[in-house]
Design goal:
Jelly Rolls, 18 strands, six-stranded mixed β-sheet, alpha+beta
Length: 485
């Protein structure tokens, strides 16, 4: 396949864009010197005195591609999965896709996605979900994982609060009832080994959402989540990164994404202590060390210790070992109690997105179970803040004061894009983003009863670590995640 990136006619052209090397080995070698300089010149985290760490990021970077002011936009149907892998996934390059995949299901290949209130209530109205609550409309979502901010509601009660503007939580002391619906946000859920969170499992089983995003090709799914909230003035997620490759399908409302590439991590003062930034952008933290594709190092060691190499006659035993690998799904939000009792969920570091706020077991990260052991996804240095979140608030009104406090942050190139209903954002693992969500009934692909809310469906995939020109068919260096499915 050609190494040249041929842009679709609808794609924004940028002058002087440098050729991005297509060999992951060459990418790593060419950037090694600069990355080592970056990790020594800048703070390596949100706390002083943090140890140095390998910064091997070798993918696409806004820091290097200084000519662009936006990211590529192309039609979903204009490119096949293999070409998309070559141009974007392998190069770790974000982009926007116009169009959504069909809902899927038997004989529904041409039926558009359409998730209505009635559909949710009919399929899963009595199911309990975890909802994040903020105490006023100026707070960001995703910044605090304490139990008091995590509310358990039935889907029906949440929809009443969101769409009927009623107080869903009887313990709430909020008096601003006219904006009560803007205080709740539904994101990823922490329960189950099922990669399809409630109500995605119910929607999938009845043919209302696709099993996968076809253009993701051979990436292995970590989790599928529904996101809902309401904000006329805009609600921010806070600045953070995810641990998985994300395909974010916006169904209603608008989202403004502020994007920064993974090589900025040393300058962004995250709460956690960074252990390693891998060539594909995957960021690992001290206390929850993981390899490039997200497999926790301690779990990998345990599996290897328990399953020493066997000779060729042990095929039956190997099959049994395969069956033991059971991995749950990644979750974004996490309460203190949940962190204490965390399990290893297939998203050892789940992602939060659009507010994927999360880490350890929360939005953006989760916990997984492998070979019978439960391991926390993301070790959290701070009791209430995920490792992957930055202490920097990019929405702060006084930018001069912000740059004075965090001078390194000023040197980070930011690309701001707007995602509209009917579009998909592809965001590789490790890209930092702050997301501001806006409710807008006029911006919707829905023809239903969802009212004035913003709603999205996202699919998280384990980040690929085999990124050569011929790796479309096998984007991972081994079959760990494949066996874990």
């Amino acid at each position: 396949m050609s190494r040249d990136v041929k842009r679709n006619s609808n794609v924004l052209e940028s002058s002087g864009e440098e050729e991005i090397l297509t060999s992951s080995k060459k990418l790593k070698e060419s950037s090694q010197t600069k990355n080592e300089k970056d990790s020594s010149d800048f703070s390596t985290g949100g706390k002083s005195g943090q140890p140095s760490f390998p910064n091997e990021y070798a993918g696409y970077s806004f820091q290097h591609d200084t000519s662009i002011t936006t990211i590529d936009t192309l039609d979903l149907n204009s490119v096949c999965a293999e070409t998309f892998f070559d141009r974007y996934i392998r190069k770790r390059k974000p982009c926007i896709l116009n169009g959504l995949p069909p809902s899927g299901g038997k004989k529904k290949d041409d039926v558009p996605l359409n998730i209505s209130r009635k559909l949710l209530e009919d399929l899963a109205g009595t199911k309990t979900i975890q909802v994040e609550r903020r105490f006023n409309r100026t707070e960001n979502f995703g910044q605090n994982r304490t139990a008091k901010r995590q509310v358990q509601l039935s889907i029906s009660d949440f929809l009443k609060a969101l769409l009927d503007n009623t107080d869903a939580d009887s313990t709430s002391t909020n008096t601003n009832t006219t904006k009560e619906n803007e205080l709740y946000y539904w994101s990823t859920q922490e329960d189950t080994d099922d990669p399809y969170n409630i109500p995605c499992r119910q929607l999938l089983d009845h043919g209302h959402i696709p099993e996968n995003v076809p253009i993701a090709g051979n990436l292995i799914l970590s989790s599928c989540n529904l996101w809902m909230g309401s904000s006329e003035d805009g609600a921010s997620s806070g600045l953070h990164h995810d641990y998985h490759d994300n395909f974010y399908l916006l169904l209603q409302g608008t989202k403004r994404f502020r994007l920064l590439s993974p090589d900025c991590a040393p300058m962004l003062h995250v709460y956690g202590t960074i252990h390693h930034i891998y060539p594909n952008g995957r960021i690992s933290y001290v206390g929850s060390e993981a390899r490039e594709d997200g497999v926790p190092l301690d779990e990998l060691k345990r599996v290897n210790d328990n399953n020493p190499p066997s000779d060729e006659n042990d095929d039956e035993e190997e099959d049994d070992d395969e069956e033991e690998i059971v991995i749950g799904k990644g979750f974004d939000y996490v309460s203190d109690e949940e962190e204490d009792d965390a399990e290893f969920d297939e998203n050892d570091q789940k992602d939060d997105f659009d507010e994927i706020m999360g880490v350890r077991t929360g939005e953006g990260d989760e916990i997984e179970e492998v070979n019978g052991s439960k391991i926390p996804n993301q070790g959290t240095v701070d009791d209430t803040h995920p490792d992957s979140f930055s202490v920097i608030n990019p929405c702060e009104a006084n930018q001069d004061s912000l740059f004075e406090k965090f001078p390194e942050y000023k040197s980070c190139r930011q690309i701001v894009v707007e995602l509209k209903a009917g579009q998909i954002l592809y965001l590789p693992a490790g890209f930092f983003h702050e997301v501001t969500s806006y409710s807008n009934t006029n911006d919707s692909v829905q023809t239903n009863d969802m009212g004035n809310c913003h709603m999205a469906l996202n699919y998280w995939y384990h980040p690929p670590d085999a990124l050569g020109e011929s790796d479309f068919g096998s984007p991972y260096k081994d079959d760990f995640w494949k066996k874990a499915q």
